[in-house]
Amino acid sequence: MRSAKDFFKPKLAELAFNRVEPIPTEKFVQFPNFFNELMMLLGNFVDYFEDTFIGRVIRNNRRRAPRFSVNMWNCFSRLDEELLRTNNSSEGWNRAFKNSARENPSIYESIADLRIEQHSNLILAEQLEAGVVKTRKRIKYEMLNEQLQQLASNFYLLPRDIYFKRARALFNF
Fold first, then answer.
1. Is the pTM of this model over 0.85?
2. Of 55, 66, 136, 153, whose Cβ has the fewest other Cβ atoms within 10 Å?
């Protein structure tokens, strides 16, 4: 099965380069095929989204538990508490540790590497608490965080359509 992006991109690009009048008859003939394939792709996507993120509707209009709970993937409360929205920092730490550790170490070498890493993390934590060192973030991500926090603070003040339109604009959707 092709991905939705691979399916839509050439089809929509065709529309951009069609003359306004007259539209070739073969395009009208192809439209039912395009529509059927589109509906199949959208149906597959909706099924995946329901199963994974919100839970499929079952008897008595209830929803089955999703694969990932809403609290796991929803970022609204994390914005309010100024927490990280991604696990990129832990992924970065994991990669740095993996690159600094030896290949095929013995258990004793692994313990020594973990002790060194723990010691450096404790020193960094003390420096952060003392204000000697600051965590560095890219300016564009700091600005995005501020804009998202501002938007989240207006959640109850803005109409839903405007709120989601502004959220999409922040992520260029």
1. no
2. 136
Q: Report angle CA 88, 3, 148 to the nearest 5 degrees.
A: 35
- Specify the 3-state DSSP secondary structure of 63: strand
Q: Where are the domains of the chain?
A: 4-61, 88-130
Neighbours of 11 (CB within 10 A): 12
Nearest to 47 by CA among 62, 60, 71, 66: 66
Residue 43 banded pLDDT, cuts 50, 70, 90: confident
d(CA 40, CA 143): 39
Q: Which pLDDT tens digit goes with each residue over 98-127?
A: 887 778 888 998 899 889 989 998 998 999
Task: Give the burial class of 60: count Cβ atoms within 10 A of its Cβ; 0-12 exposed, 13-18 middle, 19 or more buried.
Answer: exposed
